[in-house]
């Protein structure tokens, strides 16, 4: 058979064209499925109700509002410390472990700028509040414990009104005046 027959060529072209058209229409009407695209999780948003704080505020009768960590454990300051300097020795730190958070996220109304970090003499890091090193008390076992409050008049919680200190020494009892003092 020779391809010179114009009628035969016309029939073959019609069949091939029809097949192509049917194929194109079939492809166009079939649902297109792209390879699955991995979706990224949306960027987390933080609102005050979902924010995880590293330092917050608790309230207790007899103390009022005071600073706690994210688990509700009380943080203390040591009266013998000085600004940006811990006076707690290794022996003291066994009973009064340091509080350290690499990135302090405070609960409002506390301000992030009021917290910083110092390097202790032993090379470890310690968080501070308004420049004063922060500690835990090893005897505090559950959230809300404040067993270290006023311990030896050297250890105190930090209240919403600021730093507490050792109670002032009592005034000496008034002495009776001598007769000469009445005449002067």
Task: Note down, in words, how this protein is organized.
The structure is a single chain. This protein is α+β, with helices and mostly antiparallel strands and 184 residues long. The protein has a domain at 55-163. Helix content is 19%, strand content 18%. The protein contains three helices and eight strands. It has helices spanning 6-29, 90-95, 179-183, and strands at residues 55-60, 64-69, 76-78, 115-119, 125-129, 132-133, 155-159, 162-163. The strands form three sheets. The chain has a three-stranded antiparallel β-sheet, with no helix packed on it. Strands 4-5-6 form a three-stranded antiparallel β-sheet, with no helix packed on it. β7 (155-159) and β8 form a beta hairpin. The protein is elongated and about 115 Å long. The protein starts with 5 loop residues before the first helix and ends with a helix.
Question: What keywords describe this structure?
Answer:
disordered C terminus, 3 helices, three-stranded antiparallel sheet, 184 residues, alpha+beta, single chain
Mean pLDDT: 76
Query: Which range does the strand content fall in?
Result: 15-25%
Largest sheet features: 3 strands, antiparallel
Q: What proportion of the residues is helical, as a percent range?
A: 10-25%
Number of helices: 3
As residue ranges, the low-confidence spans are 32-49, 166-184
Principal-axis shape: elongated
| Order of SSEs | HEEEHEEEEEH
Number of strands: 8
Going by helix content, strand content and strand pairing, the class is alpha+beta
C-alpha end-to-end distance = 152 Å
User: Mind telling me the C-alpha Rg?
Assistant: 39 Å
Task: Record the strand order, biggest sheet.
Answer: 3-7-8
